[in-house]
Here is the input.
Amino acid sequence: MAYLVQLQKQFDDYRASLFNEGFLDDQFEQLQQLQDESNPDFVVEVVSLFFQDSERLLNELATSLDQQNTDYRKVDAHVHQLKGSSSSIGAQRVQRVCIAFRNFCEEQNTEGCLKCLQQVKHEYTLVKNKLETLFKLERQLLAARGSSFV
Amino acid sequence: MNWFLNNAGIVDTKSGLTLGDGFLPKMCLRWWEKIFKMHHHYYHCIGSKSLRKRWWKRVLGCWIIGWTFASLWIFWYMSSQVSEKRKETLASMCDERARMLQDQFNVSMNHVQAMAILISTFHHAKNPSAIDQRTFARYTERTAFERPLTSGVAYAVRVLHSEREQFEKQQGWTIKRMDTLEKNPVHKDKHAQETPEPSPVQEEYAPVIFAQDTVSHVVSLDMLTGKEDRENVLRARASGKGVLTAPFPLLKTKRLGVILTFAVYKRELLSNATPNERIQATDGYLGGIFDIESLVEKLLQQLASKQIILVNVYDTTNHSDPISMYGSNVTDDGLQHVSSLNFGDPFRKHEMHCRFKHKPPWPWLAITTSFGILVIALLIGYIFHATINRIAKVEDDYHGMMELKKRAEAADVAKSQFLATVSHEIRTPMNGVLGMLHMLMDTDLDVTQQDYVRTAQASGKALVSLINEVLDQAKIESGKLELEAVRFNLRAILDDVLSLFSGKSQEKGIELAVYISDQVPEMLIGDPGRFRQIITNLMGNSIKFTEKGHIFVTVHLVEELINSIDVETETSSKNTLSGFRVADRRLSWTGFRAFSQEGSTCHVSSSSSDHINLIVSVEDTGVGIPPEAQARVFTPFMQVGPSISRTHGGTGIGLSISKCLVGLMNGEINFSSIPKIGSTFTFTAVFTNGCCNSNEYKSQQTNNQPSTSSSEFQGMRAVLVDPRAVRAKVSRYHIERLGIYVQVAPDLNQCMSILNNGNTVVNMILVEQEVWDKDSGGKALAISKSKNDQGISPKLFLLANSIGSPRANAASFGVYAPIVIMKPLRVSMLAASLQRAIGVSNKGNNNPRNGELSRLSLRNLLSGRKILVIDDNNVNLKVAAGALKRYGADVVCEDSGIKAIKLLKPPHNFDACFMDIQMPGMDGFEATKTIRAMEKDFNDRTQHGEVTTAEVCENILNWHVPILAMTADVIQATHEACADAGMDGYVSKPFEAEQLYREVSRFFQFASSNGNI
Here is the structure.
């Protein structure tokens, strides 16, 4: 029982830290609210979708910016996508970098874009790790709860 | 001559007058024409006031001058007539006098002539003579009356010088001369005493031999020696006629006299005898002395009105020097008349001059008449002047008033506009404030903070509602408020309002009830929002001012009440909803038009068209309105007293708005109120019948939410135990709306007898709290336990008014505790309570209190709907789909605009589409435009009958799938772009329940109310 409480506390603290450090915002909470009995893995599903999507986009961005004649419209569309999906799950630090990224795209500033790409990658990795940790904790918590009920 | 001239003058003036008679009217006519024309002209160029004023002044001047002349003329004319008349009078008087004088003189003269014949007969023809001095004197004395004008008569005989001595001897005196006497007339008296000198020797003599006693002193005087007498004698014997002397002072009397002399001839002479023959034949001379002065006086004295007239008689033989014979010698150039006198002596001429003694009197009549006319004319002129001035002044005032009125109206409009603008401007930011407060409430707040926020929000809401009221007032005043005409369910609206106030009424322990007559149709066409506003206003007031008792809303048809107005006798104070006395509601509608028409026309109108005349009464047992304040109840911002607003709040605008709204609904509002007893507000409103034919009516009824739930209870039976008829009627009305057959029992015993009357199955017993309390539940419980034939005991319900006592009471009864139904009774609430108790519940509606309202309604709205979500972003797609699924929607996801177009090509079975705006390939706007174009094309073809797949379309003639934009930007430009593209609305990306609900409900509710889905 104490373990459960401890686990719960750990989970709550971790979750709070994610919000406090600005990795996540309200939108993530909204997302969690959408999850109910009929759709128990909703958040995980959405987030993993986000991971897939983002990795694809990041790769495409990297190849696009690698080329000699960078197609900025394409880059902008990718960044827009990334921004949209990050805002949808509430990964606000990724979203913020995306906004700056799009500004550089508009200016057709390759250097800035490359710099932003690095930042986005960095932020993405960060939030991915954080979320994965969070989900791991949640799974542990649920497992613990389930065992305690049994 | 003068007289003739005057006459001619009169004729002249008269002809002038007649001329004027013809001339004046013509002139007047012309004048008036001119005035009229100018008037006309004036009205043509109205506004040039100075011109008009000048013109009127001129007319006024002409008027005054004209009438001054006219009155002067009248004066002259009248006075001339008066003087004419005076002249005529004078002439006639003068002529009369002259004729009389002449006549009398002639009489005297004739007599003297007769005497001359007498002398010739008795003195000369006889020898010796028959007449001596004594005889003559006596005779003449006695015949003096015959000669009224003579003072004496004397006879002188012709004596030739040859006969003188013999004559003197015979007579015994010598012939004396007379001229000495005449030369000293002053000493006449003395001369009379002296012996006159003997006459000098002459050829012949005429000594007086006989004389009347009055003139006896002339005896023996020789007439030929007197200058006048000699001339007279000579002329008399030559002419053979009476001859007159010029007037001269008489001997002795010294008065003016005239001597008439007749010659006496020896023989009779022919009338054509020559003067010589006459002289030869002369025997003597008879002279009569006329004392003109006294004689005229005597004559005048005989006549009347001698005092007003002055008479002068002149001898005018010598024209240049007339000798005055009578009358004072007053030379007066005044009016005088001259009549000629003929005394029978052609040689002598006499005239009589008459004049009035007094000066002519002032012609007062003429003066007053003309002056009067002038005054009248001036007065008329003044009246005209005053009238014109007055008219001008009134016109000026009028223009001023018009100006003021315009300004006032403009100010009023400006005020209304200002109010509307300001309220609107306040409302917009207030919405922001309220929204923010709402969001703030959702955040993590401690208890105090939440309390603050709640208070702030409540105040904000109050402010917004106040602003809305003010806006309404302004709209009404500027006439901009228009009523909608949509179908609505009156009962549902009243249930809504009731639920709005139910909390408050339960708190206060007031009984709240609504009764709607069966004859009121289910669906009406009108403005439900405004109707609701009126009801809410009235009920809000009632709740505000009522501390105990009840508030009772009744809705009837006007016709119904007209017909029952005589029958209804429920005025007894006890027979009310709560037993408290109420103000007589019938008093509140006594002044209504609908009732004054005696119902007849009302009936015709209601039966001919489908107008529904509703009469709604809101009755309360509150403090009432003091009589002195009753007059201004409907005046905006007026409250009974300043203390009211302090204790109860409110602006006092509600009733005024209600009155306006009722007016817009062609109704009337009034009230009756008794202080400390209560008020009853009643209003009428005209609606159109919403169920045009019975089929539609039925379908409406089945579609209706309360009716669908009622089907579960259809055919059930209930017994209502309530001693109070009015309340029982209300409860019964609500229960019967569920399709339950209700029997009313005034007490539990009667209820028991109904139950034991085995034929019927009673499913439920509803007991009024009052009865329950009295009974302490014992008997009621016994009843509920009594089983009928099927072994089912009826369910027991308690109709409770306030939260307090019954629940506590009921708790003590444990298992058999009756189910408490809280008043006010409403169909939905009643149905829910009954469902819970009886167990006929439908699953869908089972968890009404789970979650917040919007989420619940969202679920209702979205459940089962097929919704297409388009987003190129998989994550977003997933989130949106998850959100919509959560509310029970059937979601189809696609990731591009092109796919959306493909799916939404009609006919399809999507209820709505959420579309991302920014998408690669085809963005949301473009996709929407294409979809709209397709829909339009399809609709056109459907209308032209080109589409054969009518079954697939499900008779939907007008395809228009609601498309909502999903966007992160909520700026206005995006919103407008959405509208331009044909989108129906937009939601911001992270779905928020309330916003989603607001947007979705806009068209889904519309669609459901249309009965499409």
Remarks:
- The two ends of chain A are 12 Å apart (CA to CA).
- The mean pLDDT of chain A is 83.
- The interface with chain B takes residues 26-27, 30-31, 34-36, 39, 42, 45-46, 49-50, 52-53, 77, 80-81, 84-85, 87-89 of chain A (CB under 8 Å).
- The CA atoms of residues 71 and 84 of chain A lie 20 Å apart.
